[in-house]
Amino acid sequence: MLVYLQAYLEDGQFPPRRQWKSIVGRSVERRARDDISRRLQASDQWGVTVNVVERDDCSPLWRVAKDNPRLLGVCKTILNSIGNFVSRQFIQVCELCNVLTENLTVHKMCHCHVLERRRRCVWTCLYECVGPKEYGGFTQLNDLEQCAYLFRLITELNDLQFVYFALCKAVVKVLYIK
Ligand SMILES: [Zn+2]
Asked: 93: helix, coil or strand?
């Protein structure tokens, strides 16, 4: 935005109204995004934002979605769930089982009985991804740590591809919000 203002001061050339509106829009959007990134990282004691939040840039997951629009829903669900996981919690009702919960993400990932079958797919997939030894360690973690572990794993990217895509899809099926 500064570039345009500078140009205006120098030669009096101002972009047309519609273009200017979009420039301002983009600039505000970027600032809001940076602000969200900073707040997310500050409240992330679990390291779950490591792969998904970059300062002064958009999330690598948005680049994945841009590169492959079919993955937009997957990327959105992951980012929303991570945001929900690290933000300040309040009591909510799970719309699937009507149980009150303090952390909807943890509830769905570890406790909701309606999601039992989908959750079993996640555990099977995880076992196949990391092997018996690592999986054994995972089962010793508490529910919060298990969620964090899964988020870190499913957000691992290699060249805009999910490293553990099958696991990623299984987790998204559990966390998906309409
Ligand atoms: Zn539930």
From this structure: strand
Cα-to-centroid distance, 104 and ligand 1 (Å): 8
How many CA within 13 A on the CB side of residue 117? 1
pLDDT tens digit sequence for 34-89: 766 676 677 778 888 878 877 655 788 988 998 999 999 999 999 889 888 888 77
Q: How remote is the CA of residue 151 from the centroid of ligand 1, in Å?
A: 19
The upper half-sphere exposure of residue 48, i.e. CA atoms within 13 Å in the direction of its Cβ, equals 25
pLDDT, one tens digit per residue, over 94-149 is 999 999 999 999 999 999 999 999 999 999 999 999 999 999 999 999 999 999 99
Predicted confidence (pLDDT) per residue in 6-40, tens digit? 666 666 666 677 777 777 667 666 776 676 667 66
Q: CA-to-CA distance for 175 and 120, rounded, in angstroms?
A: 13
- Tell me if residue 59 falls in helix, strand or coil: coil
95 alpha carbon – ligand 1 mean position (Å): 7
Q: Which positions ≥6 away from 109 have C-beta within 8 Å?
A: 119, 122, 143, 146, 147, 150, 171, 174, 175
Contacts of 55 (CB under 8 A, 6+ apart): 34, 37, 38, 41
